[in-house]
Amino acid sequence: MxxxxxxxxxxxxxxxxTTQVQRLCERFQGRGLPVLPTREPTMxxxxxxxxxxxxxxxxxxxxxxGRPPSWKTMALLFAADRLDHLEAExxxxxxDGVTVxxxxxxxxxxxxxxxxxPEEGGEVxxxxxxxxxxxxxxxxxxxxxxxxxxxxxxxxNRVQASELYEGDELQVRLAEAYQSAERLVPGDRVVxxxxxxxxEEVTDAIAREVWRFRGEKG
Length: 218
Ligand code: TYD
Hints:
The protein has 218 residues and is α/β, with parallel strands linked by helices. It has a single domain (6-214), classed as P-loop containing nucleotide triphosphate hydrolases (Rossmann fold), CATH 3.40.50.300. Helices cover 49% and strands 12% of the residues. It has eight helices and five strands. A five-stranded parallel beta sheet has the order 2-3-1-4-5, sandwiched between helices. The model has no long low-confidence stretch (mean pLDDT 96). Residues 13, 17-18, 40-41, 54, 78, 104, 108-109, 112-113, 163, 165 line the site of thymidine-5'-diphosphate (TYD).
């Protein structure tokens, strides 16, 4: 049995990762290829805890009704969720020959948790890389580059309430981090796609990169 490919789609909030994971999976299905869409944070036990933190329902008690868990606690929760994700879902499917396409992976931790740490620098990044050390490397990471103002407008069009990391100033710094994401995951195969275009055009551009990587005709 040939192992499936592990493909990750990344970008800032509002970049369109969720939509594009679904659409890329449809392209695989259209070719009769086995594929599994998935996401982080997961729907598993640790992922559920993370979602409570993202929606301000998990707070550290204190003055003024408490505060969200620190960036360090969040980093460890995301890393634990990732290893659980790998064990429970990603690795068994890859071994079955299924291509797994994940909406976010450890690049999100390296970008978001370092951008929310009080001090920037190599030490924070080294620690984040260390706690994610046993996360299997993706075969291909596709980054959807979208100007922060475009992504902010898309977020405003959503019905759901604003989440923990959706502040405009943070998103500007995250967009910069994603632009030079190669330095966060040295050795990984990373491609950038302009995610500011129409939905169909973006799917076409992602699919072109994926078929090229797989050595298949576009
Ligand atoms: P989610 O509701 O899935 O947002 P989206 O659909 O926009 O991806 O929430 C995921 C949020 O968690 C998003 O703001 C990115 C953040 N995140 C991290 O900070 N670190 C991580 O390791 C991961 C996987 C996500």
